[in-house]
Amino acid sequence: MAACLQNHQGPIVVLAHENPDGDALGSVLGLSRALRAIGKSVIAPMEVPHYLRFVVEPGEIVAPLSEWPADTLVAVLDVDNNDPVRVAGADLTTFSGPVANVDHHGTNLRRADAGVVDPSRPAATMIVADVIDALGVPWTEAIATPLMLGLNTDTGNFAFESVTPETFECAARLRAHGARIGWLTEQLRQKPRSYFLLLQEVLGTLEFLWDGQVVLARVDDVMLARAGASWEDVESYVGLLRNAEGSRLAVMIKDFGDRVKVSLRSSGGVSAQNIAVALGGGGHVPAAGATLSESYSEARRKIDQAVAAELSRASASTPA
């Protein structure tokens, strides 16, 4: 992977997934800053959500591309390059050049010209850190901090079961390189007024299902309008739902009218990934998602069926 990036003489376009989270943005910023430090021409197109803009320097992230620069290498981070629907920032279906891929999702098809895919890593930024080491780039705080952002957010502040001893070792390395973990934590805690007003709306839709094993909520445009909020404000709600006592699965449904997006968080032997895959999506065992191109009522039936099937599987595999 490092050799592919190092040897390419043209521009490198760095992409991540739609609705970027801290791991996607952190991976893009960390790698882009490292590549620029060794003289590479880097283009990083992304629509950065409001709550993450604090970590972006002026000019380093650009708007999505409408055409590809000549002699481009594309580096796709934190998402499978074979999933062009989820890759954001440019239309990969129109690109015929070399593609490199760094990802930590178990559903990755591993079909890139160069790449590292390791589902054992709880954050893609851990792999990006290894790539930067292999590139021989001198570490700086500016490179380490966004990588720590991804590590922090994708591990739930190092609280998820996916955290390994290696995770802490990586965090220690980044901290030693100057990563500003206290500053990141304080910035991430800040929530706009609209977040709380929309949360009030969302909690009104709350459902406890399957004897409390599943907690589900929904949000639509009408609720957003009443709260003066945006879809960005919804992103962290599924993490809040997962804290319901006795639950094994949190389901947050974004109802766009003609389609719905489902965010899933699971524990206790339930696989969010299995449910997402059944709905045409993907992700990790504890955190996954899917998009269904149909109305809420039609999608809800499929969601309920997929959840029921996974709960049945999880119950059957649990020792008596």
Describe the fold and architecture:
The protein is α/β, with parallel strands linked by helices and 320 residues long. The protein folds into two domains: 2-189, inorganic pyrophosphatase (n-terminal core) (Alpha-Beta Complex), CATH 3.90.1640; 194-317, Diaminopimelate Epimerase, Chain A, domain 1. 38% of the residues lie in helices and 18% in strands. It has helices at 2-7, 22-37, 124-135, 141-154, 165-176, 181-189, 193-203, 221-227, 237-241, 272-278, 296-317; strands at 12-17, 42-43, 73-77, 87-88, 99-103, 114-117, 207-209, 214-220, 249-255, 260-266, 282-283, 287-292. Strands 1, 2, 3, 4, 5 and 6 form a six-stranded mixed beta sheet that branches. Strands 7-8-9-10-12-11 form a six-stranded mixed beta sheet, sandwiched between helices. A hairpin with a 3-residue loop joins β11 and β12. α2 (22-37) packs antiparallel against α4 and α4 (141-154) packs antiparallel against α5 (165-176). The termini are far apart.
Q: Count of helices?
A: 11
Q: How large a portion of the residues is in β-strands, by DSSP E?
A: 15-25%
Mean pLDDT: 95
Low-confidence runs (pLDDT<50, min 5 residues)? none
Shape: globular
Helix content: 25-40%
CATH-defined fold name of the largest domain: inorganic pyrophosphatase (n-terminal core)
Through-space gap between termini: 46 Å
**Which CATH-level-2 architecture of the largest domain?**
Alpha-Beta Complex
Query: For the record, what is the CATH homologous superfamily label of the largest domain?
Result: inorganic pyrophosphatase (n-terminal core)
Biggest beta-sheet profile: 6 strands, mixed
How does the helix and strand content classify structurally? alpha/beta
Number of domains: 2
